[in-house]
Amino acid sequence: MREAGIMTGAAVAVDGERIAAVGPQARLEREYRAATRVECAHMVLTPGLVDSHTHAIFGRARYEEQEQRAAGAGYMEIARRGGGIHASVADLRSRTEDDLYALALPRIRRLAAYGSTTIEIKSGYGLSVEDELKSLRVISRLSKAVPMRLVPTWLGAHEIPLEYRGNDELRREYVDLLIHELLPVVVAENLARFADVFCEPGVFTIQETRAILTASRSAGLGLKLHADELEPNGGAELAAELEAVSADHLAAISETGTAALAKSGTVATLLPGTMFFLGRERQAPARALIDAGVPVALATDFNPGTSPTANFPLMLTLGVSQLRMSAAEALIAGTVNGAAALGLVHETGRIAEGFSADLALFDAQDVREIPYWYGDRRCRGTWARGMPCHVREESDNLNFLR
Ligand SMILES: [Zn+2]
Fold first, then answer.
1. Which of 301, 331, 334, 361 would be a feasible disulfide site paired with 380, CB 3.0-4.6 Å?
2. In what helix (H) or strand (E) does residue 86 lie, and over which residues does it extend?
3. Contact 252, 200 (CB under 8 A)
């Protein structure tokens, strides 16, 4: 993860949806005389950022919880006041598919405006057959409406819904519903590429997670896992055992969990914005993971409760300043390794011949400026599959630099 392969004086030739060539500008200008030209001088062109963990399908914002948390309210107290994930579930259930689509569209465009061209989106605020399918259908419609590559993940196991809480029998009924009623429809309608489970004490147990993910794998879905966010409970080890493509969060991963991920090659997707926004002191041990040989990805965790930001470059800032990664490591975590966390490592995340023409252009003269100007929107343009997602003609930042 140390070598980002930075080139200067280079040009990138795009033919249709693919990168046709990368090389010295003078040579490519000779070889592609007829091509439309996008001027990138004095800027940094990166692979389109790969946001491999978002919960972008939701209804209303939950800003009131931020102050409640600041005043000392914990998760349970916020839930008692009508907040938390169950608030988002009740809200999403009350909305139509069209309404959710109209809310999500500008949000994913916002993600692209900050540099993301590949965006994983999870369901998980429906928690019923009808509402999970509604959420996944919104992602499917969005995929057809925007150039960005959207990767749908089914997270029916985000939480036990209120109507299934209270005793073990009800919990079992919900897990059964996920496996026997919801999963077959998700697969039959081709609504998701991955299945994910929130595996955490008080949410889904290791045994429940194993049952849901094993069934999902048999049905043909790839696997992801929310693991070891608050306590080390064997989530990372389970992700490795099941050969999940990624284990996400990991702020509390154990040494055995780290060793297991290193062995399986499972990507550790770290979400530093979440811990920052929640005001937690602990961040995932990125250095220990990288030093152990675990591929580390960064993502926004964009969601209304714990990480309401579309600003991926800010995650790179946190990667450097909080997780003690180098700028090159953070950039790789936001591109190549994000692609690996979505099973797309041969498709996107690199500027190389044959790869999808997924690109992001930044007002910067050195790649290290991307994490450096923190909170700023330096992205001047993004292209996915050769198509513009977002192009900003005028920079409002250049006077910072020159
Ligand atoms: Zn998440």
1. 361
2. helix 85-93
3. no
Asked whether the predicted pLDDT for residue 113 surpasses 60, the reply is: yes
Residue 126 C-alpha to ligand 1 middle, in angstroms?
14
Long-range own/partner contacts, residues 29-38 (CB < 8 A, 24 or more apart): 38/361, 38/381
Measure 303 CA to ligand 1 centroid, in angstroms. 8
DSSP bridge pairs for 356: 18
Q: Say how far apart CA 122 and CA 56 lie, in whole Å.
A: 7
* Three-state secondary structure call for residue 323: coil
Ligand 1 centroid to 306 CA: how many Å? 9
Rounded to the nearest whole angstrom, what is the distance from the C-alpha of residue 242 to the centroid of ligand 1? 19
- Cα(210) to ligand 1 centroid in Å equals 18
Pairing of strands 379-384, 10-15: unpaired
Residues 222-240: pLDDT tens digits? 999 999 998 899 999 999 9
Distance CA 340, CA 266 (A): 9
CA 387–ligand 1 middle distance (angstroms)? 28
State in Å: Cα 250 to ligand 1 middle.
11
Tokens of 359: 């690109």
- Measured distance CA(135)–CA(127) in Å, rounded: 10
Instruction: Say how many Å lie between the CA of residue 82 and the centre of ligand 1.
Output: 20
- Give me the phi and psi of 209, to 5 degrees please: -60, -45
400: confidence class by pLDDT, cuts 50, 70, 90: very low
In the block, tokens 């062109």 appear at 45
Distance (Å) of CA 315 to CA 178, 292, 326, 364, 370: 32, 22, 13, 17, 10
Between strands 194-199 and 296-298, the pairing is: unpaired
In this predicted structure, the answer to whether residue 397 has a pLDDT above a threshold of 80 is: no
